[in-house]
Amino acid sequence: MKLSARNVLKGKVKKVVSGMVNSEIVIELSGGTEIISIITKTSAENLNLKEGSEAYAVIKASNVMIAID
To answer: Residue 16's Cα: distance from chain center in Å?
Structure first.
């Protein structure tokens, strides 16, 4: 797999919540941090995402906002 995105985080699928159109995918990284993504249900099915399977969270953003309290 070759990607232009620089932020590729490998983890395991912790949870898949499928709706009528979209699915919520929770990926747990090695340190316990969770990344949550909403993708189409069709994409989740095509990727065969199941709890316990390995997956990558690929983050490509031209803007990252930072906030403080």
So the answer is: 10
The pLDDT score that the predictor gives to residue 40 is 97
The one-letter amino acid at 65: M
- CA separation (Å) from 25 to 12, 16, 28, 56, 59? 10, 5, 10, 11, 14
User: Top-level CATH class of 7-59?
Assistant: mainly beta
Name the pTM for this structure: 0.84
Hey, where are the domains in the chain? 7-59
* Mean pLDDT along residues 58-65: 81
Contacts for 4 with CB less than 8 Å, ≥ 6 apart: 60
